[in-house]
Every structure is written in structure tokens, then in C-alpha cells.
Amino acid sequence: MPTDAATAGGGGSDAPPPREPGYAAPARLWRALDRRRPPGVDAVEQAWRSPVRGPWLTSVLGAVLLVTLPLVIVTGLLDWIAYGPRLGQAFPRDVGWLHPPVFDWPTRPVWLFRLTQGLHVTLGIVLVPVVLTKLWSVVPKLFAWPPARSLAQVLERLSLLLLVGGILFQSVTGLLNVQYAYLFGFDFYTAHWYGAWVFTVALVVHVAIKLPRLVTALRGPGFARTPVARTRAEPADPDGLVARRPGPATVSRRGVLALAGGGALLLAALTVGQSVDALRRTALLLPRSRRVDDGPTGFPVNRTAAAAGITPDRTGAGWRLTLRAGARTRTLDRAGLLALPQHTATLPIACVEGWSTSQTWTGVRLRDLAALVGAGAPAVARVRSLERGGQFNRASLHGGQVTDPDALLALRVNGVDLSPDHGFPARVVVPALPGVHCTKWVEEIEFDG
């Protein structure tokens, strides 16, 4: 049976333990730590015996994450910008010197926020098996003693600690937010924002340190086609990823990659339906995003009328919409709104939890409502809901969003009146706008500028 590195994946299980690397300054400190080994540390080091761990497997998984994690980071930043930091309604609001360059979120293409938020959430879920497999491949390093042998290694280990802690924190809190399970006692938006910056800085530092070794490992002999019977440990590496005394293989490296990839594909199949209407019923992991029924108003909602405290007496015949622009005021009932020129547009609603849906809305253009009170080209429109509580009972729209030809105060959807849960008697629907700012149960719009 061949056992050379090119065909069998490195040295066999009888290979001697790798020679310990030397110490760099301050060498006396590292030697002192090595002499005072905590109880059980040697037993823990010997417990990691899988021969598939090593630079090659870790580098393959790292390369996958190196390509995909920046997409998660960038789409998360774009979503924060979409909430309108210039209008003071991004969460968190006050981010100090971490405030990135911002711009007015465009209304075209109409599916822009649906794409960025869908990618952010779906990729975050799909990458969970890859992240866990990557952590499994490097877990022996977390128990290595001494924890460092040089100041450079201290920086590396610190970046690794922040990287592992950051990605676990972001993944867990993000998944809980998707499921509306706020088990933590802090504000999700604030924690997720600052956690993302900690993770991003740690990722950049870690990549800068490890990229040369990742490239070297990937250029070396491949191990993906080595069957279980011929799987051996790689040669000893300076990072300590290879087991000191590897045991017999129970799975090949190809099997490990297939398990991670299969898990990612399974999660993708159970998640993508939250962003694709035709696959809505397959979103089994996200029950709130599944279709309620087959009627024209059977698409998902984030907050129901009952949860918002909206009662029929507030949305019935006595309901009025108030339009303001400076000293000018106009009041309209629903019949008056229906008598105005109506416009129909097919637009998506996309929510921060990742689900989205595209429906056909009919109502009055916002720019026509602005014209009724003499605000031909407003810089800002402030929309207020009948809902009295909650973070999103009001929203501000910049001028481009108000004057977009498809920006509506919607009165009907898919050919029928809005249901109470979908914002009856009137709601805002604007192209590419985050769903939480498509205010429901509107009672007032004020145009400025």
C-alpha cells in the first residue's frame, strides 16, 4: 500500500512527533510557561488524533470562507446604509468614528435591497457547516501550550480568538434574529454592528498573517482523491494542525469536504425559498416567511395588526390621512384617495430577517400626494403610522424615494383591498426600500424642502 505524501496524504501514523519550534523573544517567558503546563493539557493535545486535520484541509475551507465571508460583510454594510443613516434611522444610529461613507439608497433596481438582504442572511445560514468544519480543523490550536512562542504568534492567536469568537457571536445572534428568538438581553442591531467590526478586523489581520501559508498549502500535493484506506496524516507543520500521534482514518478528506458541502447545500435548499416566491413552501427553517394561504393577501407579514395594537375602530370610516407641507395641510379619507389617479406597480417587500416577497400594489403616487400640498420636489417625507409603539412606527424617505414613479401610498394589493395585517387602510411601498420602512396603517405624511 503506497504511503508517500503524493498518493497517501503524508506521513503515516507511526511518524515521530514533530520537533518543537524554538522560542523567539522574550524566550524566557515562553520557556517558563512551557515548564508550568496546566493539568490535563498534555492529555488534551493527545486527544486530537484525526489524520485528516492539516494545512491542506484547513486551507481549502479557509479559501471558501475567504471568498464568501466578504460578501456577507459587504451586504451587511449595504443593508445598514439602506436604512438611511443620513435621515437618522439606521440602527445603531450613533456609531461614532466607525461611521462609513454613506449615500442615499437608490430605488433602482427595485430588487436591490431584496438582493443584498437575501444574500446577507442566506449566505450567513448556508456557511454555518463550513464554519463549523473549519473550526473543527483548527481546534487543537486553541488548546496548544504554551499559547505562543513569539510576539508575532501572540498577534496571530489574538486574531484567531477574536475571529472565532466573532463569527460564533454573529452567527448565533443572526440566526436567533431570523427566528425572532431574542433570548439575549441586548439590542440586536447594536450588538450585530459592533460584532461585525470586531470580526472584520480580526479576519483582515488573520488573512494577512496566514495567506502565504494558505497559498503554499493549496499549491502542495492534493488530498481530495485519497480514499479512506490510504488516508494518512500530512507531514508535521509549524502551526500544529497535524496530530502528534494520528490514529487510523475513519473518513477521508474528501468525505469531510462532502459533509460540509452537503450541509451547506441542504441549508440553502431549506432557506432560499424565503427570497424566491415560487419556492416559498420550501423555506422550512423559516416558518414565518412561508405563505399564509393561497389568497391575494396570503403572503408573509412581519408584524400583524393585533401585535401593533391596530383595532378596526381606528381604521374604519373615521380614518383620515393628513398631508402636510409647511403651513399647508390636506386631509383625505380612503374614498378621497381612491378618487385620485391610481398607479399599479409590482414591487418587492424585503425584511431584515431575510425573507422577501414581490406583489402587485395599487395606490396613489407619493409625488402626487406631495403635489396636493404644494411640495413638488420634497427633500424628505416623514411618514407616521397609527401604531403608537415599536421602533418602526414612523419612517423618513429621501427625495429620490418620494419622487420615484413607482413609490406608492398603496391602497390595494393583487387586485383587492389591503388586509389589516398588510396595512389597511393605506401603507407605503417604495422600490428597494427596507420592509420596515414601508410603513403600514399610515395616518400622516409630512413633506419638507
TrEMBL record:
Keywords annotated in UniProt: Membrane, Transmembrane, Transmembrane helix
InterPro entries, sorted: Di-haem_cyt_TM, Mopterin_OxRdtase_euk, OxRdtase_Mopterin-bd_dom, OxRdtase_Mopterin-bd_sf
UniProt-listed CDD domains: SO_family_Moco (cd00321)
Keyword Membrane on entry: yes
Residue ranges occupied by any Oxidoreductase molybdopterin-binding domain in the UniProt entry: 312-447
Region feature (Disordered): 1-24
Entries under Pfam families matching the protein: Oxidored_molyb
Protein name: Molybdopterin-dependent oxidoreductase
